[in-house]
Amino acid sequence: MSNASVISPERRIEFNAFDVDAWNLLLRESSARPIDTARIFYEKLVTQFPNAGRYWKAYIEHELRAKNYDKAEALFERCIFQVLHIDLWKSYLHYLKLSKGHIISMREKVADAFELAIDRVGHDIQAAQIYQDYIQFLTDVEAQGQYAENQKVSAIRKVYLRAVATPMLNIETIWQAYCDFEKVSLHVLPSADNDVRNDQHFSLFLNRIAQICSYNCKELCILLVFQSVNINLAEKLVADRVKDYQHVKKVLKQMELLMQGINRQAISVPPRGTQAEQKQIDLWRKLIVFEKSNPLRSDEVGLKAKRVIYTYDQALLSLGYHADIWYESAVYHEKIVAELRERGDMKTAETIERETSKLYSRATSGLMRNTPLIHFAHADFEESKGRYDIATKIYDDLIESNDDPTLAYIMLMNFIRRIKGVRAARKVFERARGDKRSKFHIYIAGAMMEFHCIKDSNIAQKIFDYGLKKYGNVPEFATAYIDFLYHVNDENNTRGVIERLLESPDISNELKIEMWDRYLDLETQVGDAASLRKVDHARRQALNEAYDDRQALFLVDRFKFLNLWPCSEDQMKLMGYNKISRLSSTTGGPTTSTQGHFMSQGLLRTTQQVNLEISGFPRPDTNQMLAFKPASRATPSTHPVSGGVFPAPRSVSFMLQRLPPPDSFCGPFVDHNILMDALKNFTREPPKANYKASVDVNDSIGKYKVADLKREFQQLVTTTTDPAVLYASEEYRKQRKRRHGAAGGPNDSDSEDENTNGTAAEATGDVFKRLMNAKVKAKEQMQT
User: Fold this and answer.
1) What is the C-alpha to C-alpha distance for residues 360 and 383, in angstroms, rounded to an integer?
2) pLDDT value at position 618?
3) What CATH class does 12-190+206-259 carry?
4) CA 257 to CA 311: how far, in whole Å?
5) Kind of pairing, strands 700-701 and 638-641?
6) Neighbouring residues of 289: CB distance < 8 A, sequence distance ≥ 6
C-alpha cells in the first residue's frame, strides 16, 4: 500500500496545497454534508483554485440543492465573468431558465443572459446545448400580434444562423432543425417593413387579386400565393447556407483531431515540468495556431479575434500558472486592436482594449499575483495607454505584496524617471533605500541612473561608496563598483577600492579571488612594470594555497585576455584550470559577472585522470566485457536478451557451478520482503558462541539432552545424500537430459561440460553411504 493512500487528505494538503486528488476526496465528502458545514471547505477550495470551473459549479449546485438562491446568485456573480467554463455557464443558464424563465417580466433578462453566454462561450465546441436551449426559450415565448410574431421569427433565425456558422458538436441536429424551421416559419405574412411587402409590383398584384376574387376566396388566394413564394424563399435561404455549413463541418473535424488528448477538466497547478504537462502545452499551442490561421475564412477580424481569444482563455483554465500563455494572449489582444484601428473599426478596438486590461487584472489578482513579470507587463501596457496612475498603483501593489521588492523598486524608479524626470525618481530611490527588504541592487541602479542621465560621476560614486559600507562583502556589488570606476578612468580609486576590500577581514574566499583577478587585469592594462610585478607577487602569495602551489595557473591568469588563452583548452584542463568559461562569452570590457566562475567545491577542480588514446578520445575498458552467446533458451545463471544470453561473470559462474540444482530444494521458501524488514528492525546483538567451552553430554538444552542431540545430528549427516554423489549418478544425468530435451534442445551452458564420470564408491569411501545410495538408486529405478 502506498503512503499516499494511508495519509489523510487533510495531511496531504498540508504537505502540498496543490494536491488535486486530495482536494477531490474532500469534495466528495463535503458534497454529502449540509451546506452550512461544507461552505467553509468550498471557500477554501475556490480560493486555492480560483479558475477551476467545476469546483465553482459544485459549490453553486450545493447551494441550489439547499434552496439558497441568493447565495447561489452571489456565487455566479463572483465567477461567471472570470471563469469561462462551458459547464459553469450551462449551469447558470439552466438556473435562470428554471427560476425566472416563466416570469414574463424576467424574460428579457433571461434572453440577455443567453445572448451574453453566446458572446462569451458561444465559440466552444460543446456550446450546442446553449444554442438549442436559447432557440427553445424563444420558441416558447408567446407573440401577440403580427409584428411580434415576425420579430420572434427573426430572432430565432438569427440564433440558428450563428449556430450553424460555429464548428461544434451536434451541429448536424441544429442544421436539420434550421432547415425545418425555414420551411414552416415563412407561412407568416411579411410585416410592413418586409422587403417583399414593400415591393410596389407585389402590392399591385395583391390589389388585382382582391378585385377579381370574391371576399370568401380572397384570403385563400393570398395565402396560396404567399405559400408558393415562401417555399421558394425557404429553399433559397437554405441553399445559400449549405456551402458554408459544409465548410464548418470540415473545420469541426479538424478541431476534433487537434483536441484529441487535451484534458479540458485539468486543474491549474504550478508547473512541474512533467512530460504529460508539456504535452498538454503543445496540444493547446497547436489549437491556438490553428485558430489564428482563420480556418472559417471569416472576413470579419472581430470574429476571428474572438475565437482566438476564447481559445487562449480555455488554455488558461488548465495552464493558469504559465506566465507565457498569459502574456501571449495579451500580446494577441494588442495586435488585434492595432489591426482593427487600421480598418477603422474603432468600437470593436476599444472593446478588445478594455478586455486586454481586464485580462491583465485577472492575471495579477489571481494566479499570477506572485509573478512580477506579468505585473510589469500590465504596468507597461497601462503606461503605453497614458494611464500613469494605474501603472503606478500596479508597481506600488507589487512592492507591498512582495517579500523582495528590489526589482519592483528599480522598475518603478525607471518608470517615474520616464514620465516625471530624475528628481522624482530620486524619491523612489530614497524610499527603496529605507526599505529593509531591499537588496544591494537598488544602489547600483541608483548610481547608474545618476551617471547616465545626469552625467555626474561624483554623485554616482557617493552612492556606490554608501552601498559599499553595507554590501562590501557581496561579490556582485563590489564587481559593479569596480566596473564603474574602471569605465570612468579612475584607476587610483579603483586600486583603493580593491585594496580596501582585500584588507577587509570579512571578505569571502570567492570575492577575494575575484578581486585579485581584477587587480591583476587592471595592472596588466594600465600599470607599469613595477606595479604589475608587485601585484603579481602579492597575488601569488595570497592565493598560493587555493591554487595548490601550481605556478603555471598564475601564469595563465596573467597572460590571458578576454577569451584569448595562452595555451590550448585541453592543456588547461590537464593543469586543473577551471576558469575557461569565465571569459569565453565576453565581448568587451575586462570584467564579467562572478556568477558561475567557480565550482561549488572550490576554485580548482581536481585533475581528471583521462586515458586518451591516439585518436584523442577516451575508450571504454573492454577487459570486463562478456561475449554474447546465441541461444534458444536461457538458463537461470544467464542474462537473457533477444536471440541469446550473456553469461554471468566468471566469479558468479564459479559459485553457481558449486550450488545444488534448484529442483533439489523443496522449501521452506522465504518471503524476502518480510526477511529484509525483520533484519532492518533487528536491534539486538547476535548471540556469540564460545567455542572453547566444552559441553557435558549429560547436560540438557531446554527439554532436550545433549547426548540425544549429538546422536541425531551424526545420524543426519551420515544419511544425507552427498551432492557429489547425486551429480555423479547416471540416473541424474538421464533426468537432466530428458528434461532439457523436452524443453527444446540440449543445454548449451558452459557448466554442463564438466566431467561427471565416476561412481558413488569412488566419490566417497564410506561403506554406509554406498549402501544407502545403492538403495536410493534401486528405488528410483523401480519408480521409473
Assistant:
1) 13
2) 60
3) mainly alpha
4) 15
5) unpaired
6) none
